[in-house]
Write a structure and sequence with these properties.
There is one protein chain. The chain is an alpha/beta fold. The chain has helices at about 1-10, 20, 40-55, 75-85, 95-105, 140-150, 185-190; strands at about 65-70, 85-90, 110-115, 125-130, 150-160, 195-205, 205-210, 215, 225, 235-240. The strands form two sheets. It has an eight-stranded mixed sheet, with helices on both faces. Helix 3 (about 40-55) runs parallel beside helix 4.
Amino acid sequence: MKDILRWLLRQHPTSRPEPERFALHSGERQTATTLEQVRFDHVARYELAVCLVNQRYPMHCPGFGLDVFCGTGYGTHMISQRVNCPVLGIDASCEAIALANSHFSGPKTFYCAKVFPFLLPCAAFDFVVCLESIEHVAQGETFLQVLAQSLKPGGLLVVSSPNSACWSLELNPNPFHHCHYAQKELIDLATKDGLFAFAMSYAQDLYHFEAGRIVQPLPPEAMHVRPGADGQVLIMVFTRRG
């Protein structure tokens, strides 16, 4: 694991951060300093990820996990505690990483600031959690290829995206989002060239929509994650082939 961390620290992002896009208070990140202050739907997705990883490794703790675009690190810290394994969190915002180190650090959490496109060490991680992330990346296919390369064969990928079938980016413009995916689109992208095998999907609703446009957030009790793909947010589970 130390070799992996040293490898990452030697790498450099191939593009410079844009302060207005990656700033901690851009409006796209949770800025809470305790888990209890984080919005319910964000925590619910990480709780699902914890459950899925524990189900994948019922007899032993996985060796090393990755939380891509970890924000302020609350989810990274949650996984490291509840899965009981080391987890690396990567985010483009140096401010977010500083907050993670200040408020969500622990003996099994590691944080690193990197801007995509970046490289990851090959076959280094037992699982990758990628929540609220792929919609922020213009090169979705390349992004998934990098994640696949970093996973051990049979490793788990948990990835979420706004569901384009329910949540139109055209009707709800977001300067931070490049693309929303329907279930089939995300499956086709992940399984292209035999990178991943699709395992299962979950869904979540966050907002009340009128005429396809967001009106207001739903109450927390309506934001629970459920099996299936009939929701505003998709949480997709894949395994690495090979």
